[in-house]
Amino acid sequence: MRNVSKRAAELIEPMKGGLIVSCQTQPDEPIYTPGMSTKFAECAEWAGAVGIRANSPDQIRDIKKHVKLPVIGLWKIWHDDTDVFITPTMREVDALVEAGADIIALDCTAQRTHEGTVAWDLLPKAKEKYPDMITFADVSNVEEARRAVANGADIVAPTLYGYTAATSNIEGADYRMFAQFCRELGDDAYVMMEGHIYTPDDAMRCVFLGAHAVVVGSAITRPHYTAKRFVDLLSGYQHNWRDVEKAKHEQHA
Q1: pLDDT given at position 168
Q2: Interhelix angle for 142-150 vs 175-185, to 10°?
Q3: Which of the four pLDDT bands, split at 50, 70 and 90, describes residue 253?
Q4: Distance (Å, rounded) from C-alpha 120 to C-alpha 150?
């Protein structure tokens, strides 16, 4: 791959065809207790996962003490005036590097941040500051994916499809768009699938389309969201469970 360093390839190549489990908890969730995200990560490792995706420096540090898998680190910070919340500034990048994340995930969409910058401008600045940093670009469409790869992203995924104003009404994964990611960008970066994958069959479909690996979170580690999906259907879709999934959480250090 032309855009990927030898170091990145050595870390990411063994993930081929595998499952990466997103192991996250927030203080305002019913599953939150100290160490819960680490237990999720230990379960994922036991099951044969090839990587972990984790939020916040504290949770990343604890997971890395107990699990040998590569950790994709991010830090979610919410503000009322923006939908950019995944590693939005260099402050969060610095903290994730210090915490020991093996790969740094950040918002690479065209959205405006709380600081008034365009989210996708952070990636090249982070790469300039940390030339050896391996990056995971979270995007919502093909244009953003192209720009992320051009800016040096090692991994790109449609993580934020459904979390931007233009995609806010989606009901599931866009497999045609993902296939386009794989066709256009697969020679220059690792294309992974993340977002709205709820069954093993969904994951296998993505691998068939060209995904290097598949990231799954809510269907494995967010039982309250799984329950909410059932309740949403059984109540005749009176309340959209995705409103809960997309809700901004209480801030924590």
Answers
A1: 87
A2: 30
A3: very low
A4: 11
* Strand stretches in the chain, DSSP E: 18-22, 51-55, 71-74, 103-107, 135-138, 155-157, 190-191, 193-194, 213-216
Question: What does the pLDDT read at residue 215?
Answer: 98
| Residue carrying the six token digits 């220059």 | 188
Angle at the Cα of 230 (from 228 to 236), degrees rounded to 5? 100
| 162 within 8 A of 123, measured Cβ to Cβ | no
For residue 1, give every residue at least 6 positions away whose Cβ sits within 8 Å of its Cβ, in sequence order, or none: 9, 187, 188, 189, 190
Task: Please answer whether residues 109 and 120 qualify as being in contact, where contact means their C-beta atoms are separated by less than 8 angstroms.
Answer: yes
In the chain the first and final C-alpha atoms are separated, in Å, by 37
Task: Summarize the confidence of residues 136-143 as an average pLDDT.
Answer: 98
- Rounded to an integer, what distance in angstroms lies between the CA atom of residue 119 and that of residue 116? 9
Distance CA 72, CA 193 (A): 14
Region of poorest pLDDT, from 23-27, 82-86, 249-253: 249-253
